[in-house]
Design brief:
Actin, Chain A, domain 4, 2 domains, alpha+beta, Heat Shock Protein 90
């Protein structure tokens, strides 16, 4: 039996890994660009593969953008262009009705932060200003199962959700200097019912499993977002899909 030269074997393995990755292209939208129009910029990855998970990713990203930009209370909005029009129309209505001069603004940026043979995670960062003292920033994580071809709920990321919750609470208390046996809100947090809970957004990243509490989720606006990055070596035992270190 002939031995395969190391260089050829390495190229073969690299090609196999590349074939397992999805193919993306940037997809962008902008507002009208006039002097008195709201500033709108959207850029997210668009998956080109015709697979079931590609459709799920593209659909979820579209829904995420629509939820951020849509201001319509009438007919449901089903595409990004209509959501941008809704945002612009709402600003114009406010401007014309109350002689409002301060322009609105919205920016949405998405990127792939993790992909392996099973899981794809996208991060969506957004900022919007629609009047008031300040704008609002948020970060969302969308996790997809490539083999099942669908988006995963947070609970589906874990084989031991209860154990993970206890582990994270201990890490959170340590990071935020909250006494181990004290009330979780003892230092000024605002967990509902004085009970710790996991954040709404959890995602696989190259640095580890990332958890983020967005502004107002458990603390004031001034406190900003609160992040925990947990190394996979510490949390793999809780995960449904483990990541090699």
């Amino acid at each position: 039996m002939k031995k395969v030269p190391p260089l050829i074997l390495g190229l073969f393995l690299l090609a196999c890994q590349s074939e397992s990755k999805l193919t993306y292209e940037p997809l962008t939208w902008e507002g009208e660009g006039c002097d008195k129009c709201p500033k709108i910029q959207v850029e997210v990855p668009h998956v080109l593969d015709g697979s079931q998970v590609a459709q799920a990713i593209n659909r979820a990203l579209s829904e995420e953008i629509i939820s951020i930009l849509s201001f319509s209370e009438g007919e449901p909005i089903d595409d990004v262009a209509k959501a941008i029009a809704s945002f612009s129309d709402s600003y114009r209505e406010l401007r014309d009705r109350f002689d409002y001069e301060l322009p609105w603004e919205a920016s949405i940026n998405g990127r792939v932060v993790h992909e392996d043979e099973r899981i794809v995670t996208l991060e969506v960062r957004s900022y919007s200003f629609t009047g008031g003292a300040h704008g609002y920033s948020s970060t969302s994580y969308l996790n997809f199962d490539k083999k099942k071809g669908r988006e995963l709920d947070n609970g589906e990321l874990f084989g031991d959700l209860g154990g993970f919750g206890e582990f994270v609470e201990a890490r959170f208390r340590e990071q935020e200097k909250i006494p181990a046996q004290g009330n979780i809100n003892a230092t000024g947090f605002m967990f509902e019912g004085d009970s710790f809970h996991l954040p709404l957004n959890i995602g696989y990243t190259e640095k580890g499993l990332l958890l983020i509490y967005n502004q107002y989720e458990v603390a004031s606006y001034a406190d900003g977002p609160i992040e925990l990055i947990l190394p996979y070596g510490a949390v793999n035992k809780y995960l449904a899909h483990q990541i090699k270190n």
